Prior knowledge:
Number of helices: 1
Oligomer: single chain
Strand content: 35-45%
Helix content: under 10%
Amino acid sequence: MSATSGDNIGGAAGPAESPSATTRTLTMRGGRIDSRELFAAEREIIIAHGEDSYRLRLTSQNKLILTK
Length: 68
């Protein structure tokens, strides 16, 4: 199974960019995505959930922080 991710989707959390410019395919195994795939190109991704945007960031100590 695979999921498509638009890493820099516009909204309240950041400037609008063309989703097609940052679209990539991620592999899911049993509802699980390896974080190395999520953060292969960037240390921060934006997750669109309904009308809200959330920022998922990988810290320098290799921890994840999710903020609204």
